[in-house]
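[Automated response] Your request has been received and processed.

Submitted sequence:
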Amino acid sequence: MKFIELLKRADRYFDRQTPILVLFLLILALRLPNFFEPYWYGDEAIYLTLGTALREGGALYTTIIDHKTPLIYYLAMVPNQFYFRLLNLVWMLVTTALFFKFAKTLFKKTIWAWLATLVMVLLTTLPWLEGHIPNGELFVMGFVMAGAILFTKSDVWKLFFNTKKTTFVRNSRQKEICYLLSAGAFMGLGILTKVPAILDVAAFLAIFWLILAGQFFNPQTKAKELGQTFTWLLKRGLIFMTGLLLPLLASVVYFVAVGSGQDYLDYGLLYNFRYSQSWSLDLGNELLNFAFSMPGKTIILLIVVMLITLNVRKLKKRTQFICLYFLFTLYSVLLSSRPYPHYFIQMVPALALLLIDLLQNWKEVKGTALKIGLIAVTAYVMLSLGFKPYSTGEYYKKFWQFATLKITQEEYENSFDSNVKDNREVSRLIHEMGVKKIFIWGTNPLLYAQSKTVPTSRFTVAFHIKDFDDQARTFSQIEREEPKLIVVMKNERDSFPQLEAYLSKYYLPNTQFDRMVLYLRQELPEIK
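Generated structure:
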């Protein structure tokens, strides 16, 4: 009898979980082709290369460098691409469950939350925005959603979505501190995965501002009550910010302790500001060029924030939050004005919420106008930047041809990138030779990742060596370590004179590959 009752309880439980289970099945089906892809995507290969270097004892930002904050590289310390894709799959299943729960907190009814989550799943899983790749934005999303769920349990969230303070049960002091600290800490981990996550945080900080603005524009609010609310919010805001800063401070302490403090500051933190300003953009109009500049984007952001603030008593609370969430993440996407599809993943959760809120409350005149305006501006921005989503139909068509044996595995893999064929053969050679460190002059981090080798350089690609004017230091390292194999990509336009002279003296070229030349170190006779 107990076993039968247990089965009935399990049946009832899974019935209640049907909406999220359907989404899980959709994710599993759509991500199945991910596990049959070759090494072909540059950023993923860089993450895996740094992961390999870290497994081999390398020092992040000192002996091996990329310009993102550290967590993405530690997540990439998996054995190979398959396990990175598997981690990404599990991560997105958890993230989807968290987003679904967050959407239910906003929309109350399961059907609306499910529709919002469906939009999120499609945009973060299909290749349109490179959602099938383990990009940093996907991992950020998981941390932010975990923080968001914890934030919804705080009195700050409850007060914002209630018109009277007495309409909710307040947390104990200990619980409130715990919720806000942990919410901030998870969002801090998001920033440690990719810096633009700070704009997701801004959306939740905006709630503090909207609560205060709502009371300020209420004619019935007395000055004393406004002061009390300010103090109440300030205390909780400081707790939330403390939680946010704890992971960041812990990371600084860690890198200082291992002797990489200055390198972490230079490459993991400060370089992000340089990166956001390094892309030149000319839209043929001075006003448009200014609008896409950092000052221009910031001014537009502040104007829209003030418009929402001035209408804080006329717009629904949910509309205020979702519109600001969307606005801040759109600003984050446009920080560098680059049209890379995976950058737009960051705004997907807010976009999903915005679309469903628009559908559910289309009769709300001011709110509807605001939401349509934000969507229209986003569409215009994407067109202006020359945004081009990846083809989804072609992606699944190729996989179907491979799965039904209409094309061979090699044909399938070679269709992803022109370097795949050569990399497969060179990786086989590297494994046969037992080589652990190589140097590549050019842009082919895929070979490092696939062969599980570590660069004889602090950088994984030539454009970073050139960007940081690191040729002299790189060559000094090559001379010191004498890598058995050096690869020169044929499409690398910039010369490396010191390297060229060194190769002609100590290495034998192998030119049988289409995309690269391999240089094998000569075994010079000993001088007696």
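Summary generated for your ticket: The first helix runs from residue 2 to 16. The chain has two domains: 2-36+67-384, 418-521.
If you did not submit this request, please reply to this message.
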